Amino acid sequence: MKTLILLGGGHAHLAVLKQLQKGTPEGWRVQLLSPSKYQTYSGMLPGWIAGHYSLSDCQIDLQRLCQSAHVEFIIDQAASIDADHCNVSLNSQATLTYDLLSIDIGGESDVSHLALAADKLIPIRPLDYFIQKWGEIVNQLEQGRALRIAVVGGGAAGIELALAMQYFRQNLKLPLEIDFICSSRGILPGFTQAVRGRAQQAMLNNGIRQHQAIAKGIEGGLLLSNGVRIAADFIVAAPGVRAPLCLSGSKLALNKRGFIALNDAQQSISHPNVFAAGDVGSRSVEHEKSGVHAVRAGPVLAKNLFDMMQGRSSLVHYTPKRTTLYLLATGPKHAIASWGNFSADGYWVWLWKRWIDLNFIKKCRN
After folding, report:
1. According to CATH, what is the number of the domain 2-107+243-310?
2. Which pLDDT score is estimated for 52?
3. Is 12 left (phi over 0), alpha (psi -120 to 50) or beta?
4. Does the pTM of the predicted model rise above 0.70?
5. CATH class of 109-240
6. If you ran DSSP here, which 8-state letter would residue 258 be given?
7. Looking at the DSSP assignment, which residues form a beta bridge with residue 33?
8. Which of 24, 148, 198, 351 is deepest in the core (most CB within 10 A)?
């Protein structure tokens, strides 16, 4: 009996599980490893913080999906990978051997510049830890404790989280202060000026204190490159993504930043029996690391894994679209749309985003 290991319960592996519900190729068994029973859909997390959704609205039960697909579900994490010997060592000290491996574990938050404030630090990855810590913050606020949160990161995640927290504070009249810190490049680098302007206006309308400087963690909070010190009870870090530590020493070909080097079929360029999707991978023509690409690559990954299990050598390619739709929640029932040079904002954009998000969850659950 040969073994396919699905390492991680990311967006692309959901498509693989849906395909496996139709049956597993003869002579194969499939195992899925995840540190949590649930996959929390990150696109809905700001909506949960703002109070528009319950946590269960945003989650997909991986264990139930695995049962319906006759996949063995293992709650654990990879400590290391040895691609030359086809094995994965787990945090539990167990070792699994595979014939075919697919990796969809995302990246890790690069918080090295904030390490001196580790006792206050809440990186947005892993999501389970962030969710746990946000619950603790809410409990403290509901008990009447005044808190100050610094949100570090000028990308979409940092902006959405800061606006969601501010809306949560305003809606429930809680004793919470929020500082938002981004680099000298400003907010949403890489987006059009129109989108950046809409996001900036949303920040101003919601009264969020903004600082444009490099942040460094210190005892008690942050020291900015302009000399300003920010006291904080918690530091929510939404920085860039770095490669997972388990890839170091894996023998897999990696790019300069440590992500898995892939061809257009989502296949490792060094080990043909290893595939990957989502933030953990890198292709010769880079695209923005976004859940959109993981979702779209899912059906391609599923087909290629099935073809490999059935001994077929021809693989299909995933071609990212040149223009990607981004829908950014701004706290209240309002969102910003970005599509190439087109941008818009309003309640109708929020309804559009809500429809897309809830349909994604529904499709994955059914």
Report:
1. 3.50.50.60
2. 98
3. alpha
4. yes
5. alpha beta
6. S
7. 7, 74
8. 198
